[in-house]
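INPUT
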Amino acid sequence: MAPKSKASSKAAPIPESKAEPPPETVGERSTQRFYKTNTLQKRCEEVGLAALTPAEKKTYSHAQLIIPVSQDRVPLSIKAEREYWKQVSKENLPIRRLRRNYDWGQDRQGRQLDTYKLADFGERSLKQARLAALDILHRRFLAKRDKARKEGSELPAEEVEEEKKTRAAMAVLRKELYGKITGPLAQDPAWDDVVPIPQAEPEDALARIAYPDDYAEAVSYLRAVMATEELSERCLRLTQLVINMNPAHYTVWLYRFKIVKALELPILDEIEWLNRVALQNLKNYQIWHHRQLLLDYYLPSISSDTVAVKKLAKSETEFISRILEEDTKNYHVWSYRQYLVGKLELWTPAELGAAQNMIEDDVRNNSAWSHRFFVVFSNPKETTPGSLPTATDPKVPVATIDRELAYAKEKIALAPQNQSSWNYLRGVLVKSGRDFATLAEFTEQFVSGLGEESEDVKSSHALDLLAEIYKAKGDKEKAKLCLERLAAKWDPVREGYWKYQIAELEK
Amino acid sequence: MAALNKEKHIKYWQRCYNTYLPTPYTSSDSTRLMWACFITSAYDLLSIPFSSTDRTKIRSWVLSLQHPDGGFCGSPTHSLPGQESHKGTANLAATFFALITLAIASDGEEEAKAAFAGVKRGKLLRWLKKLQRDDGSFGQNLWEGKPVGGRDTRHSYLASCIRWMLRGHHKEDDEPWEDDVDVKAMIAHLRRGQTYDGGLAEFSEHESHAGYAYCAVGALLFLDRPSSASSPRPEPSSLTAMDQGIPDKPGMLRFLAGRQLNYLAGEEDDEEEEEENFIQDAVGSLTLEGGCRHVGFNGRWNKKADTCYVWWAAATLAMLGSPYPVSVEGSRRYLLEITQHPIGGFGKFAGTPPDIYHSYLGLAVLAVFGDADLKDFDVGLCCSKETTGKIEKAREGLLKATEGEDQIAWASDGFWAS
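OUTPUT
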């Protein structure tokens, strides 16, 4: 046993540590620091407690024993405490030391912070410091604004702009550091007085949608301002924000209309805005409904001004034409056009011409055919009010009927297998009250040698119509033959329907 | 012939049920109750059972969307919490889908009877009445006390179904009485919708559309439909709403027959975009071997085939009593070989990814065609017949409770408490 040296009353000297490489990560640095402040720990771990020198053993065990007191887990009397510190000081025991396995926590992606490279960690700390600094600026702004408002004034615009920049920078930092989203509205001091009503949905709600963050925020503000019935410019902008993301929202449009009315905004400006939205959302229905509301509201104010009404009719039909260029069969646009014709009494050659042009472009555009039928057979000057389209209307002038029949026939000759023109022909005939037999000659030209070797059919719709013509004439056999040939050869896709017609024939 | 890839469809619907719907659904946020109904109803059709936890969760979510003044809001976006709740907005479609979903979320006789527990029937029916306009049409929601929205047949259909589901065919001296909507005006409005080509639109002046035809015929069907399968049929001699509401029935049948088209797969692939959005074969070209292999349906004349129109047209015919058959085999092949998607569900067109709307209506029409893998289908309510049976029980249960007999028992037995 080595003789007791004087030094033995002091702690055992720290064994010479092998030169360790400098730490790369936060975790490595913590470990190194732990060992540096917990002398003997590493050696004890490497060689085991039994292999330590007695001095080391003593120091090691004393170092462990002082822990409960240093951590305030064991209270001592004043006297005992004095004795304790005396001993610690005398033996130079490591009283201030790091704990093992310090938890640095996780970042927003769930990565443990102790795996960060030191430089990255430094950068992160810098960001945190920057955020704290910005927060001070932000609070100063709030305080200044409060003070200004108490004095009945507002802060100058530059300061508000400065604050917006501060918040934008804070939002970026918060997102980077903690994954917290601060939406554009929360960043805008103009919305500070609104307490948003977010959707509080349970985790297991049905049909949850991965809403974009901006949508969730915009809707939560919209709910708040709609609840307080605020009608203001900023709310108008907010409706636009929501409409851009969810044009099918069924109350935001009504709310927007209410704001437009309350603020007495120029309706034509609103229509101009709507044009842009419509072009971006071709399939949306609410847009056209909103347009109708606007027109219903606006028209009475200009009804005595024929120039203004004409101007409106022109700009509206121009826009309709433009959007129909993009989507020639757009259902909502055509429906709106029908509304507009009724509202502005556009029973004009120009309107008929517009439909006609679209038929010329595409003879199978059924929407355009439909519109033509409407313009001709709903014109109050030439028709009986309330006459159903499926009923004869004696008020329609013969010239009109003849013109329409000729038009349909001309287009049928162009494309005999086109459903739209045949439907139109039948529709006109029903309106006229004339017998189907009057179409026999015209229709028969599309069919030859029926039931014979040389049978040729240019149009299954002609054959269909012929069956009705023969039936009306009382020639059941011929009608049946048409139907049989439709089922077997010329239109087998509707076989079931033709066979049903045959059965009806025999009733 | 391709079959329904049941396993894949099950997977598709489980994804819809268990995870977030993708961001593009944001633009249909206002119809989340419809998505919820389609998802749960697809589970029902495919016989995927719900655990009791699931059923409780579905119920409580649906009921959380109920408006304090009657009706259901389309999504949590439209329903406000706590004291602000009356500032939310209920709408017709959401209310229809809410009631069906509540029925789907019940299992067995007892639960079915209590499926509508918590539905404010009186308030809802009064709200429904307020939604009707003088011309007989219905708005989609109230705004400042007045019905707003279009006047199209969708709203008439939804109103008619809701009335059937909740009101039953009450006589005026029955309890609990609620003022009825104006049925005569309703029929008159629908009658004004038939177009010159036999089809139907919001107004007869608009272009005919198979979807509006379905809704008009459905609305009329439910005006005539007895409260339950066992209730007495009306006198056969009396004029039905269906008779009164369609001025030209042969024209309507012709319009519906016209929705079928021989689908030429090759031509759709060649297409650039939707530009040439119909596919019409040359006349007489179908008689070749294997002619009408794929039969598609469109919604309007000269438009392109689309999965959902197989449903809208075939279902409308079924409601009219299917006076003639459509080409079931060809249509099934169109759905199963052309628009059924490899990952499950159906797309709108060939090659388009599946979405809830087309996936559900694809299943629905296959069920109408009697697909062995799917439950028997109620073509009027667009859910399984089993679910309709539950709705009838639920109505019965709710009526009883409203009379006060079971009200207390329901409130206190904790049956639905989670």
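end of record. Residues 385-402 of chain B form the longest helix (18 residues).
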